[in-house]
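User: Sequence in, structure out. Go.
Assistant: Echoing your sequence, followed by the C-alpha cells.
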Amino acid sequence: MNDQIAIPCVVMRGGTSRGPFFLASDLPADPAARDAVLLSVMGGGHDLGIDGIGGGNAVINKVAIIGPASVPGADVDYLFAQVRVREGIVDTSPNCGNMLAAVGPFAIEVGLVAAAADRTQVRIHNVNTDKLIDATVSTPGGRVTYDGEARIDGVPGTAAPIELSFPNAAGARTGRLLPTGRPVDRIEGIDVSCIDAAMPVMLVRAADLGWTGREAPSEFADSGFRARLENLRIEAGRRMGFPNSAAMVIPKPVLIAPATEATLHTRYFMPHDCHSALAVTGAVAIATACVTSGTIAAEMVGQLAPPVPIRLAHPSGQLVVRLEPGPVAQVQRTARRIFQGHVFARRAHVPHSILAA
C-alpha cells in the first residue's frame, strides 16, 4: 500500500460523540501538515466524508490528539479538532467535553498514565483552552473497564461511569466569563447572553426566534432561520473577541426555554446543525449562565447558587451539571473503545515534508 500512509488510530466514543484518537507523536507537529492529514483521513471536501472515516454529522467528525503533558500538574495534553468535512476545515478553537470523556481511558491504555487499583484520576490539559480538567476512570484491578451501570441520554445501554470535573471553567477562550462585559447584549433586536465557561456560547430565548425549545433537530432545517441564527452568532462572536467567527465553530448558539421537568430546555447548535443531544462543555456554559446574575438564563430559572444540580433537557433526554463552590462543574459521562488499527491518508494529500520524515 505504498500509495497511502498508514497512521495508528483508535476510534472511541466519548459521551455522545465519536471520533479517532491519535498520539501526537504519530501526527505532524506542524499544524498545517497535521490538518492536511486529518482532512485526508476524515474525508474532507464531501458532505458525508465519503472518502474517509468522517460522517454527515458534526458529532462524528471530531478528532482527539493526545500526548505527554506540556504544563506542570497535568498528566496528558488533549488537543481537540472539529473537522468540518463539507468545507474542508479543521477548527481547533473549541474544546469538546464529550470526546474528553474518552481521553482518560485512552491515555491509560497507551501507557501515558499508570492505572490505580480501583479508580484512576487523570488530569487533562486541554490545549485548546489551556484549562485543566480531572477525569476519574474505572480501573478495577489496574485495568480500564468499559462495562458498567451508568446510563447517559443519547447513548444506548449502560457503561462504566467517567466523572469529569471542570474547575474554574470561566474564560476558557476569552479570559472572561462575560466576554462583552455585559450579561445581556442586544443584536438585531434580539436579547442574547454571551458566556465563556468551558465553551464560548451565545444564549437566545427560543421564543424570541419563534421556537418552543422542544423541537426535534430536523425541524431547524429552515434556511431563513439558519441564516438569521448565523448572523446573530457572527455578531456575538465579534463582540466576544472573535473577528473571524464565520470561519470558526465558536461561539456556539443555544436556544433556551423554560422547563418543568428540568431546569431548562436547550437546543444546541454546532454551530449550524442542531445537536441530537448536548455538548458537555456547552452544558457547563449554560449551567454557569443559570447562576450568573442578569443573564437571560438566570432570569428564566430564578435565583440559583452552588451547590446545585442544573438539569438541561435536550433532544435525547437530559444532561445534569452539578455546580459546586470553587467554582467547579461536574458531569458524568461514559466512553467505549470501538476500533484499533491504522487509518490511511492519501499520499497526494500529505505534504512532502511528512513523507521524508
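User: And one key feature?
Assistant: Residues 31 and 90 are 10 Å apart (CA to CA).
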